[in-house]
Amino acid sequence: MKPKPVNDTRGDTGRFAEDARFAVEAARWAPSVYNTQPWTFGIGEGRISLRADADRRLDVADPDGREMLISCGAALFNLVLALRYRGYAPRVRLLPEPDRPHLLADVDVTEPAEGPAGPDVVRLYEQVRERRTHRGPFRPHQVPAGLLATLREEARREGAALHVITDEHARAALAALTGAAEHLGRADPARNAEIIRWAPPPHSSRPDGVHAEAYPREPERARPDFPGRDFARGQGWGSDAPSGDAARGAATGVVVLLTTAADTPADWLRAGQAMQRVLLRAHAEEGLSAAFHTQALEFPELREVIRTRLCDGANPQMLLRLGVTDTRYRTVRRPLGELLHQE
């Protein structure tokens, strides 16, 4: 679908409603922790608001709502990108009302852009539905150094920093901390109950959560190995890898840490926007997918080790692996109608 100019349609409420729904449709395809999709959107006169759905916060893994707001920040990036694609010049206010902490952003959509969406906006927007979360190793692939520099700049544009972890000992340490956190989580009945809530059995019709078709039945191991979450819980659930994937070999991929200088709700939102910009750029330029490993960041003591030892004192918000895969796992999203309300 080509972007539609809005310069000559200001004041057209029917057109704005259509464009607002178009933007929220893009927003709902953002990644979120456990695929909780913890967001709702309000459409008013020339504005769209983003709210956190606190009922979808992970009470055990994410009691402060940090990962919930990172997820919402990713949705906000998609929302603004889609509005730019449609020819608007949106203006964003983060956390506009301190006494309403779940009101995360107000997006003013009263101004048209000076011209049609540029090729870069179009290219990023085209990745919104193509981007996929990967769970497992990647196939061997050398990511160009120039792209990694570009991804660092993309994160910086949104107020975050992207650290590419190249030292083999640092990579091994992050893998070991991820493994330790995974073992601690599996030994915690409350965390296991939370995974049960958000990881339905096969053939579920739920429009959220991590379905059995979204992770491998028997994941391969790479060195260093970053274990995934145990969504199957020993039940043998999961998707079989396409034939021939194993023959390509298993690689860890590029290990990156996304950090912010401070550690406030506004920083968490910016981290989500930076993450989504990086993910879309990585897919647009080199077809890279991302694997998320936030287990260690959900234990304050392990997160502190990463902050002081591997981030030069910056606050780690996301731990990712980037790489190329031929596997496309199925994902689900909540219906658009569940996310919208009039203001």
Automatic annotation (TrEMBL):
Region (Disordered) residue ranges read: 217-245
Q: Which domain of life is it from?
A: Bacteria
Basic and acidic residues bias locations: 217-232
- One of the record's GO molecular function terms: oxidoreductase activity
Matching entries from PANTHER family are given as: NAD(P)H NITROREDUCTASE RV3131-RELATED, NADPH NITROREDUCTASE
What is the protein's name according to its record?
Uncharacterized protein
